Amino acid sequence: MSDTVHTLMALAARQFKADASALKPEQDLFEALGIDSFQAVELISELEDEFDVELPDYELQGVKTFAALAAKIDKRR
Amino acid sequence: MSESPLRFSVNDGVGELVLQREPCNEIGSAMTGALEAWLDELGALPEDALHTVIIRSAVRGGFCAGADLRELHAGLVATAEAEHAASLRAFLDRIHGVMDRIDMLPFTTIGVVHGVCFGGGFELALTCDQIIAEKSARFCFPELRLGIIPGFGGIPRLRRDVGNATIRDLLLSGRSVSAKRAHALGMIAQVVGRGDGLEAAQALAAQSGKFDPTARRAAKAFIKHLPREELDREKELFVELALRPPLLAALTKFVDSTDLRPYLP
């Protein structure tokens, strides 16, 4: 598991009070975290802060899993 | 009985307007009517009753997700095409009236923003003299995805504050930017931690309250002008674009969507 996806899942679990050990990189992050679209918008800001990147929304269209999101973050680093 | 979309209180010269319409303070006829009534209420207060007004949201999702797209869709579907231009103009005149009145209030206005601040919600925030954003806030003009431009005066107001390149970035990409980025771009006054916005606004209001009222009002009137010509042009361009098929197609897709992520641009 990459550092990015590990950090991403830990951050998301902390923010949305989920069990980090239960999260898997290939899971749909909306379903795994039980979040709605508003919370997803907040998550983007947290990730931008954590990884010091900008994540344009249009690059995130179709991204569903933790692993896919981590890959987008890595491309921007 | 449904709850009012707004509540207002005054404490020691500071007014606090709270937006509280679920899911995210969408601006349609109910919100517009409530804002008009609130502005009338403000107008009836003695001149020295307030020195500052704080505008914030009590809704978890954010400050405001923008225009009520479901209501807009229902209105377009329920009326004959020949009536669309007149009804769009009538609504734009009302909401522009509201935004202009907030913009020009004779006291300091502070917008406290968290979470989603998209489209018309961003335009509402831009009427405030100062925006304090919590770290969770994100700002966005997603209108091009609907085949329209922002219609509540947002572009002329943002142009008053920041450079044209920043506006092109937001408008032509439809992307959202964080509070941190918005602060770096000069769009907002302060960034504070999650849940700290109201306290920061109250501290700023207390500072504003120390100033001589005449000097405070004169300073605002001196620096903050309504970009009248651009606001009028925006209304016409909005109607022109909104009468084309892409808006109704996009709205239909929006209301029919069962996707969990309708607010993700």
Describe this structure in words.
The complex is a heterodimer of chains A (77) and B (265). Chain A is mostly helical. Helices cover 57% and strands 0% of the residues of chain A. In chain A, helix 1 (3-15) packs across helix 4 (66-76). The two termini of chain A are 18 Å apart. The model of chain A has no long low-confidence stretch (mean pLDDT 92). Chain B is α/β, with parallel strands linked by helices and 265 residues long. Chain B has one domain (6-199, 213-256): 2-enoyl-CoA Hydratase, Chain A, domain 1. Chain B contains eleven helices and ten strands. In chain B, helix 1 packs parallel to helix 3. The radius of gyration of chain B is 18 Å and the shape is globular. Chains A and B meet through helix 3 of A and strand 9 and helix 7 of B.
Secondary-structure class of chain B: alpha/beta
N→C terminal distance of chain B: 33 Å
Tally of strands of chain A? 0
Number of helices of chain A: 4
Strand content of chain B: 15-25%
Sequence stretches where pLDDT stays below 50 over 5 or more residues of chain B: none
* Coarse shape of chain B: globular
Main sheet of chain B: which strands, in order across?
1-2-3-5-7-10
Instruction: Domain count of chain A, please report it.
Output: 1
Largest sheet of chain B: 6 strands, mixed
Coarse morphology of chain A: globular
Q: Percent of residues of chain A in helical segments?
A: 55-70%
Q: Mind describing the biggest β-sheet of chain A?
A: none
The greatest interface between two protein chains, and residues involved on each side, is: A-B, 17 and 27 residues
Assembly classification: heterodimer
Arithmetic mean pLDDT of chain A: 92
